[in-house]
């Protein structure tokens, strides 16, 4: 990370003021992607068969590059409270985006003190904050290992909100607690709120091993989700995690209710990192979605990492006559600055 101090925006050690600064960091990717991630379905009318839907393969290898610039501002009050913000400028030249297309993302502001930390913006809810994902280490330039049909990033009900999460965190010793409130439909009259709570505990064993536990719950008027996770860092480069969650949506019948289980492992030795994860959703009826992801990373030093990723998805929805088996892969270099 490179640190830049702007005289026009930073408070500089003057009487009555605590110092504040702004830091800028960045990341970039270049490489190739492939598989069936960009397949699409076309529809036409046949005089005999009526409406016909066909899958069109688009699995040729394609170029990929993107970058992200992150800006963080921090400050401190005379009374010792810290405050700040975070925002990211993202650009993607993936095949699905227009060249040079960019957007702002992950905007948050926070204030922190002895009471804990209060964060507002596009941030995780309490459920996600305290659960452990099964994608444990490394990555890929196209996120193949986390975009398969069986992966669950523990977002819970966050996707139903309007990306305005208010979350409170407090950590004491090895324990941590979080509570969150998110609006839907920009808080308009009649819209629902999403409430969440989460707790975590990390146990540091004498052997050098760390065991972590997480428990989370989110609810709104017509849906709720709970999840548990367990994580182990064995102190020798090997990590493993297991999580389980259950989603209940009241106003859509039972078809959208789902149980999910995920497991992940990772191993790091010197510059090499290998990781794998598997997940499966069981929906009511004979409907399920599962998948797995693999990554291999080699750290070149200086912030550059060679990354390979692979993801495979298997979706079988008997109720809707959907049967999909697809994969994706990518190879390239990820850079951080």
UniProtKB/TrEMBL annotation:
<dbReference type="InterPro" id="IPR023614">
    <property type="entry name" value="Porin_dom_sf"/>
</dbReference>
<protein>
    <submittedName>
        <fullName>Outer membrane protein OmpU</fullName>
    </submittedName>
</protein>
<dbReference type="Pfam" id="PF13609">
    <property type="entry name" value="Porin_4"/>
</dbReference>
<feature type="domain" description="Porin">
    <location>
        <begin position="7"/>
        <end position="316"/>
    </location>
</feature>
<dbReference type="GO" id="GO:0015288">
    <property type="term" value="F:porin activity"/>
</dbReference>
<dbReference type="InterPro" id="IPR033900">
    <property type="entry name" value="Gram_neg_porin_domain"/>
</dbReference>
<feature type="signal peptide">
    <location>
        <begin position="1"/>
        <end position="20"/>
    </location>
</feature>
<dbReference type="GO" id="GO:0016020">
    <property type="term" value="C:membrane"/>
</dbReference>
<keyword id="KW-0732">Signal</keyword>
